[in-house]
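Quick one: structure tokens for this chain, please?
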Amino acid sequence: MGKKIMSKFEDLLANKGALLADGATGTTLFDMGLTSGDAPELWNVDEPEKIKELHRGFAEAGSDIILTNTFGANRHRLKLHNAEGRVKELNAAGVRLAREVGEALGRDVLVAGSIGPTGELFQPLGALSFEEAVEAFVEQIDGLIEGGTDILWVETMSAPEEMKAAAEAAKGKGVPLVITASFDTAGKTMMGLSPKGMAQLKSEFSCEPVAIGSNCGVGASDLLAAISEITEADPSAIVVAKANCGIPEVRGDEVVYTGTPELMGKYTHMALDAGARIIGGCCGTSAGHLAAMRSAMDTHTKGERPTLEAILSEIGPLVSPPNLEADAARESDGGGSGRRRGRRRG
């Protein structure tokens, strides 16, 4: 990819050194009245003021990058809500809402078009072919570009095939690509991809991403460990860290993220020292947390690369620690040929 199509992203990153992304979409929208099982993406048209309120909270807290409310706006997920014919409409609307909020601030705010997994199993575990996945991502990407997105932000990925399909769909579109994975299963994705494997996979994408990294997953400590592995494997990579808010706790039927703004400030310092240059929050991360993260980023003084022991001491225990015996028995090759029906971001 050439300098021209990355210039807005690159210029802002070069100017600030590190960029603050946003926080949780789903958690915040549930607080605004979204019902479990409903498609948040429909609110881009049905409840636009609430979506702008979501974005405004993060932007006013200091976010440099706002992710659109389009995570599940692909034909496969929207089909569950009889809205598969509205892919381009909902994606374009999502970008316009985020852009309207960013432009009102009077400072540079990048709009990142959020692209989540299709939610379908790839062949041979399921019915979805690589070509069908590319078609679905192209349709979504075209809607995001129609709305004027600055970045194509592929997130919460697990299967290498799905990441490659998204990259293929982004090829030739003239918009910078970011890809992040969810390392939520013993230090790897559900389909067996390790953080080191993610770093190695970057060069195999037909459209090479300008940044890679991790989002969501389980606890913030797990994510810090994952991005440390990525930056160690590829020190030149621009790395994204978008962790859940602290360490999750199970309360009855709910998983609750109890991280304080102070803890997320510590997470921000550690992510920067681990080599991340784009930092945000995922599940449970509010505008209040983002404000603390903004302060941490602005006052950060470069420190030593955090050890795992330091991460555990400052942030908390690993929720899904690596299976060292299994890893020793077989070196991860970044494999996996399908994917589960994916979670929603935030």
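The domain at 3-315 is CATH 3.20.20.330 (TIM Barrel).
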